[in-house]
Amino acid sequence: MKQWQVLKNVFPEVITDNFEFTDYKESDSVIEYWLDEREYMSGNDYKKGTVSPYSFTELKTVQDFPIRGRSVYLHIRRRKWIDPGEIFTYTYDNLTEADTKISPEFVVFLKEEDETTAENIKGIAAHYGVNRKQEI
Fold this sequence. Notes:
Layout: H1 3-10, H2 13-18, E1 19-26, E2 30-37, H3 43-48, E3 52-56, E4 60-67, E5 70-77, E6 79-83, E7 86-88, H4 104-127
Parallel strand pairs: 2-5
Antiparallel strand pairs: 1-2, 3-6, 4-5, 6-7
């Protein structure tokens, strides 16, 4: 089995389809991956013939699902493209959840955990007869 096949089972499709894994580092508590956007341009830009790769954006760090109890961080560089007079990047709507630096799948996971925890706390409070916030 090739490395990219393993990565396709671990990371979202938007990552494995559009980015190359350029580096990797791990410690007892953290796993980090560095990714660069591949040099794929849209069909329209390719046909235009005037668009070419320019450089990369600054690194953006995204937190993803923990793997085997370790935090996972993706350090992502987006590719910049140049068309005479214009520098741009392509957009991927599902790299991070809106206004966060966390992957959408990880946000869903955290929300489910939060709801479960809230229900457990409500159940414990009901068992002990606590039904409102006490003022100190």
